Automatic annotation (TrEMBL):
One GO molecular-function entry: metal ion binding
Protein name: Cytochrome-c peroxidase
Keyword Thylakoid included in the entry's annotation: no
Compartments in which it is found: Cell envelope
Annotated Gene3D superfamilies: Cytochrome c-like domain
Superkingdom to which the source organism belongs: Bacteria
GO cellular component: cell envelope
Chain ranges of the Cytochrome c domain: 78-187, 244-378
Keywords: Heme, Iron, Metal-binding, Oxidoreductase, Peroxidase, Signal
UniProt cross-references to InterPro entries, sorted A to Z: Cyt_c-like_dom, Cyt_c-like_dom_sf, Cytochrome_c_Peroxidase/MauG, Di-haem_cyt_c_peroxidsae
Amino acid sequence: MNLKRILFLAISVIITSCSGDDYTDVSNENPGTSTDASVLQDIFGQNIDLDNLLNYADQGIPNYITQDNTLENDITDAKATLGRVLFYDKNLSTDNTIACASCHQQAFAFSDQNDVSTGVNGVTGRHSMRLINARFARESRFFWDERANTLEEQTTQPIQDHAEMGFSGENGAPTFQDLLTKLEGLNYYQELFQSVYGNTTITETRLQESLAQFIRSIQSFDSKYDSGRATVQNDNQQFPNFTDLENTGKDLFFRPPNQNGAGCITCHAAPEFDIDPNSLNNGVIGVFGNATAIDITITRAPTLRDIFNDQGVLNGALMHDASLTSLTAVLEHYNDIDATGNANLDNRLKGGPAGNGQNLNLSAENIEALEAFIKTLSGTNVYTDTKWSNPFID
């Protein structure tokens, strides 16, 4: 390595160790800075074209979707493109084998069909959550135990997890600062950051905002439910495109238990069907790989959208411990909750003052109808759209 390169890396370390991100943000599509297109073409081929960015910022959203937790990190095509590259780049792991996309795969609604995902130093402690419509969730905290207050905060925690992507600084492992230096040494990031930010400086803040923009751009609103919802005034009306079984399931989903319904809507409100931010534990308290341990800290869940893919196949096991392998098993769990040993069980699942656990008395036909309705929440485009696909040339 020549002296000029050594000085460049040394200066980069000093710059990126500064707190915050005090550099000019010129990411609003055309920063007016030159890039070497041949560098990007060598890595991405025609998948990344900075002069013709794919549409992340101006996607169609149904008028009945009103929740938006973007805060101040509005999606731009440029930053979301950078986020796409980061999301699929295995260089974000210490041994160059694991990317965010390794555990959150487009083919499975950005989840993993494995019960827990393989990392550089072991496996994840919990099943990888689907990343569908994160932008439109009422719950803006992330991870199953909600330990990240924002999506931005969440994005770099797996990178710094010793088991997952390894930049933990533990037991002699590289630190997050080592990752920043590593990325600065990759010529395509010099080109991308120059294009997006007007300079080549890489900071954690910039990684977070770009990754969060890409993840928030992942949306699924082309389901059978959405087609039906667009034709009626509200969810309580019969959907003309639904079968009788699907409309029955919708009715059960929306109707409260004291009116012989399942009351799912209480925690999973339409039209996004995400989790209520005030929810406590749902009665599943297992720990993957340990039959005797319990975990009552789980209070978050992904949206109910795209539990199945567009072929009706389950996008991996369900719940944080991957303990339920069918939607029928999930519905049977909620039909008869065991409250034993669970001091954090949500009040809505306690089954009244006695707190013995919810018992809905749903019949097999009721469960079949509920499953038919939940299947209508799955879209098609999210599994194949190029803008969410791997940009790297194989």
